[in-house]
Amino acid sequence: MDSRIVDLKSKLDVYKAMTGGGNLSDCPVRDVIQGLSGKWSSLLMAALAEQPYRFGELRRLVPDISQRMLTQTLCDLQRDGYVHREVFPTKPPSVEYSLTDLGRSMFGALRHLLEWAELNHDAVRAARARFDGAMAGAAGQTGALA
After folding, report:
1. Could you tell me which of 37, 49, 36 has the C-alpha nearest to residue 80?
2. What is the pTM of this model?
3. CATH class held by domain 38-140
4. Domain ranges within the chain, ordered by starting residue
5. Of 55, 63, 99, 141, which has fewest CB within 10 angstroms of its CB?
């Protein structure tokens, strides 16, 4: 994709042409972002950006993630090329997870989004509360009219 194309309509036209006419399910941006939008992906990427971790260490670091979800998320991140899984020949075998070069390069961009989320969390929650309050008020008015 040519990074000089800046308007969305032009980019979408290029994506459509790349996929043979109109199907945006293969949009490169959506395809990449989808793998990072899971509930646990960004948290695990942030942990692995600090240092490599063994599975049990990650499980203790994020106590509210189930073992199944931790396994699945790490597998998904490994599949996308962000995480490297290394098995050590110990008894029992130990496994360590670390970021790949691709994972480190992606985390550089993700870190900015995570910092923005931390700085703006209160503002987003306040906006949600205002919206929900307005919607509740509108629903009450609609019910009164019926």
Report:
1. 36
2. 0.76
3. mainly alpha
4. 1-37, 38-140
5. 63
